[in-house]
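Supplementary Text 2. Reproducibility record for the structural model of the 76-residue chain.

All settings were left at their defaults, and a single model was retained for analysis rather than an ensemble. We include the record here because the model underlies the residue-level annotations in Supplementary Table 4.
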Amino acid sequence: MTPAEDVGPFGVHCRLDELLLARGMTLTHLSELVGVSVVNLSILKNDRARAIRYSTLSAICRALDCEIGELLVRAD
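Retained model, structure tokens:
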């Protein structure tokens, strides 16, 4: 797999796995904190999301105590 193939089709990589691991948090716990289903967070985590609401992005960053640029990075 080339580097471009292991990220979503839009050239954006979500670092959710790495941030969760660094904080010792599970996807289920994050789901409870932000009010987003585990399925939807998993889609985001696996770089399959086509869009994300600002309110969701803000809630995730607040729960993980991170900046948007730490969660989403360019992958092109």
